[in-house]
Amino acid sequence: MTVDLLPDDDQAAIAAAARDLVCSLSPLSRLHALGSSGPVADPQLWAAAAAQGFFALDLPEDVGGAGLSLAELSLLFRELGRSLVPGPFAGTVVAARVAAAAGHGELTTRIAGGELPVGLAERIEGGLLRTFDADDAAAYLVVTPDGSALHPADSVETVRRRPCVDVASRWAELRVVGEPLARVDAGSFDAVPYASVLVAAQLAGICAATRDASAHYAKVRTQFGVPIGSFQAVKHRCADEAVRAEAIDQLVTYAALAVRDGRPEAALLWPAARTVGADHALRNCADNIQNHGGIGYTAEHDAHLYLKRTQVLADLLLPREDLRAAVLAAPGTRGGSA
Amino acid sequence: MADFRDEVRTWLAEHVPRDEQPHEGTAMREFDLAWQRTQFDGGWAGINWPVEYGGRGLSLLQQMIWFEELAWADAPDVGVCFVGLNHAGPTLIARAREEQKAANLPRILRGEVVWCQGFSEPGAGSDLAGLSTRAVVDGDHLVVNGSKIWTSYADVADRQELLVRTARGERRHDGITWVIADMHAPGITVRPIRTMTGPAAFCEVFYDDVHIPLSSVVGEVGGGWSVAMSTLSFERGTGFLREQVRLVRLIDDLIGFAGDRVDRRGRRRIDDETIAARLATARAEAQALRAMALADLSRNARRPQPGVEGSMLRLFYGQLSQRVHALAVDIAQEDGLEDRPYGRPDSWSTNWYRTFPHTIAAGSKDIQRNLIGERMLGLPRGR
């Protein structure tokens, strides 16, 4: 397997384009103005993302895709995480793959074109589904370890709504009442590892964002006549944030390549990326609040937004106990370099 | 590349010694040098050295395979050959004169000589530039007085890469000289220091009017700081993969061990949720470590000098290895209380103690954090 985990020039360009788009159309400040109900995605950003082919990066060229892979997608999702971009991006990207794998060419094109925003949904107790994309989704991708089904919004009904700590998560419990548009079993396309890499990529983005926020504040905030970043207590917390961000950043790429190539170590790497991603992001978010002192505890500051989104991402699709069990159960691999 | 891996595996299967590696005294010296000679005779010595100095000229990928397979083959540690192969040798390659290289480098590769490092002093640890072992020029010799500490393998070494103060300059980094010392020279006294693991892993070295020829100075008299800092200029970090693979193997062994072992109530250790969670976290983190190591290799292949990212790798590795060995002790329960010699798979506590230096030696974890904070994040210097 290729051992070069660093992005090449083309990949770096994709990441830079995504970052430019996100920073101009969906800055973090948007989140402070977001109400507690209604759609969360910025319509302009959604349209621009579709126009730039973000939902079709990993689709084959014969269905209108860019023919790239999960590696490039994971770069995109790092940027979505870094800026806490709200909206059903992961569900839509994975749903396009599901539709393509199920042989629904026209549906694939519609999803990839952004016409059908798809929320992620997972099975919970009582035969219900859980989603955090309720007010944006025109359809839901129900992801299970056995396979995935794409349900139009009118084939599910809302059983209850729950308020979420994350301002940009629209939490609903749903019941299926109609037939899916498409369905694939895990044998032909396993959405769990795929979506998990995208979740882990967002956690990697959050780790990087909190590292940068801490380092910036430590340079500009002065106490006792000097920047607080000159104190080892603060500097070392910032350094620990940097190490955690580096660890999950490289692990996400490593996992993305293994899942893309269907390598045996993928079974270990995708739950590993989610486990490390959740752990490192939660710790970085907490350290970032600490580094900011009183202002870090206020509603007007961004620090709490990172923490709350991280809590949701950490719990998506599989609870952390199940992810750890998957890590333990994965076969041992020599993980050789060639 | 599969052919190369097969070649490495076959050679290691035929040549890795099966006797237990000694970790003390003359037996350790003889064992480690013999293993180095075996590798030399097989053409595997100095795998990451440049070809013109006896290296094998392997690609980065081939070096990675070599170090990984060393771990899978349970090959002996580099042991007493560490300083020569990984520190003094590379420094000589980077900065020494041709006759100094010719006199020293082949002997390191052939396993004929043991090197040690004389850097740290009782008053100069993390603050290396504060060293005060004095050397004055007397004719064509340096005369050295002072002492060094934490010198691994000094009791069995033949040569030492020694930093001495030859002048008090305007700046503390000035006036330091890098010199090759003969450990058998008159005036050198070595006192082994017992560690918390039992055997002496390092020593104090005392210098009492030790005469060293000026021809043994590497670089300029007074220019030793830059020589010391140039050491790792061609170390691309491939050797680190061996440590990563060993950690992966240890964690997988611990998962098996925790599945077999039962506590006094008859419950399997892995059915303890905290044990299972710690094992899973460690297994996931060991893959993050691998990804970090691979990324660091890619970075270093693209630039002339390794960067500060290496500090992140070392910090993450040091703390992870400590967590994993502490977990092993917890799984073993009361067997962890039994005093067992270092190096055996079930020497739970001793093996754990041996990981403490991972965040002390060669730049403590606090120094690594300073480097990351200042050089990577751009935070201001301070105390």
Highlighted features:
heterodimer, A: 338 residues, alpha+beta, 7-stranded mixed sheet, two-stranded antiparallel ribbon, 11 helices, B: 383 residues, 4-stranded mixed sheet, 4-stranded antiparallel sheet, 8 strands
What would your notes on this structure say?
The complex is a heterodimer of chains A (338) and B (383). Helix content of chain A is 51%, strand content 12%. Chain A is an alpha+beta fold. Chain A has a seven-stranded mixed beta sheet with strand order 5-6-2-1-3-4-7. In chain A, helix 1 runs parallel beside helix 4 (70-82), helix 4 (70-82) crosses helix 7 and helix 5 (89-101) runs antiparallel to helix 7. The mean pLDDT of chain A is 95. The longest helix of chain B has 29 residues, at 273-301. Chain B has eleven helices and eight strands. Chain B is globular and about 75 Å long. Chain B has helices at residues 2-15, 25-41, 60-72, 82-95, 98-109, 224-229, 240-260, 273-301, 309-332, 348-353, 365-376, and strands at 115-118, 134-138, 141-152, 159-165, 176-182, 188-194, 200-213, 217-218. In chain B, the strands form two sheets. Chain B has a four-stranded mixed beta sheet with strand order 1-4-5-8. In chain B, strands 2-3-7-6 form a four-stranded antiparallel beta sheet, with no helix packed on it. Chain B has 383 residues and is an alpha+beta fold. In chain B, strand 6 (188-194) and strand 7 form a beta hairpin. At the A-B interface, helix 7, strand 9, helix 8, helix 9 and helix 11 of A face helix 1, helix 3, helix 7, helix 8 and helix 9 of B.
